[in-house]
Write a structure and sequence with these properties.
The chain has 289 residues and is mostly helical. It has one domain (2-284). 75% of the residues lie in helices and 0% in strands. It is built from 14 helices and no strands. The chain has helices at 2-14, 17-23, 29-41, 45-50, 59-82, 85-92, 95-106, 114-134, 149-176, 184-203, 211-238, 241-248, 250-263, 269-284. Helix 6 runs parallel beside helix 9 (149-176). It is globular and about 45 Å long. It starts with a helix and ends in a 5-residue tail after the last helix. 53% of the residues are buried.
Length: 289
């Protein structure tokens, strides 16, 4: 029960991720990712200062955490700049389906059945409908959306694979005794954020923030790029990965609805059908028979 509540709380925060990313689209992606991750890491500082052993983890776990947090969000934010935001968001949220389909490759005692292959085909079919149906559309207020749609969708798919890999390796580490404490996510976020800010200093122009952008960055860091990570980690470690996967299928639906409201777009046929296929395929992928 606790695991499900942790997962639902993380899902609620992640539902706002794409909308906040679009609202902050004027900011360079390295800067946006770096500041938000550093802000999110603050939540773990009190525990780390009290017990410094919490941040003494293996190099493998450190590499996994830094690569996953940095890579997932950078690819997503870049994708939102290159293609229509709602379709990018749907493609990115194939990660719940990928967790189910790829679980047998990571976790002992799980087998990939025919129903999982069928679910994967339907899910990717939904993503294709989102891409083909939205290739000539632009999100409201996003003047760059649609300029490089294939690249944008590819980046979104890459971010989905990164998060599925991170989630499954986290669960495997817990099962094998080679995991990391939840507080270590603060270290992942801090190092990922500093890496991103270093890239910003070298590759991007300087940024001047207004009050609204500062507030949105704070929300982004403390919510979907902060508290959500800690909640998700607790959910994975306490619960069944299949049950957590089922709950995570609420994320694309909630996220897409919020994004539609923020961008001012109506619910087109391709978005409705793609969302139905992706969520339906994900539920199908959890069947045991």
């Amino acid at each position: 029960m606790k695991a499900n509540l942790y997962a639902l709380a993380a899902i609620g925060l992640w539902a706002s991720l794409a909308a906040l990313g679009v609202s902050l689209r004027q900011l360079p992606p390295f800067f946006l990712t770096g500041v938000a991750l550093c802000v999110g890491s603050v939540l773990a500082w009190p525990a780390a200062l009290k017990d410094r052993q919490l941040w003494k983890i293996s190099r493998a776990n450190l590499a996994l955490g830094v690569f996953s947090l940095f890579g997932f969000h950078f690819l997503l934010f870049m994708g939102l700049r290159l293609a229509s935001a709602v379709e990018v968001n749907l493609v990115n949220y194939l990660w719940p389906l990928l967790i189910v389909v790829l679980a047998p490759l990571y976790l002992p005692g799980m087998r990939l059945r025919g129903v999982h292959l069928l679910a994967a085909a339907i899910g990717f079919g939904g993503a294709a409908i989102a891409i083909l149906g939205g290739s000539d559309l632009q999100s409201a207020g996003n003047t760059h959306a649609g300029t490089e749609p294939v690249a944008g969708y590819s980046l979104a798919l890459g971010s989905a694979f990164i998060w599925a890999n991170y989630s499954l390796l986290t669960k495997r580490g817990e099962l094998t005794g080679k995991g990391f404490p939840t507080a270590a996510i603060g270290l992942f976020g801090l190092l990922s954020g500093l890496l991103s800010l270093l890239c910003h200093a070298v590759l991007e122009p300087s940024v001047a923030l207004d009050v609204r952008q500062c507030l949105l960055l704070g929300l982004l860091g403390l919510g979907p790029l902060g508290a959500a990570f800690f909640l998700w980690d607790r959910a994975l470690k306490l619960g069944d990965v299949h049950h957590i996967g089922v709950l995570s299928y609420l994320t694309p639906l909630a996220s897409t609805v919020i994004l539609l409201l923020v961008t001012g777009r109506g619910l087109s046929w391709n978005i409705a059908l793609a969302a139905t296929l992706i969520i339906g395929a994900a539920i199908l992928g959890t069947r045991k028979k």
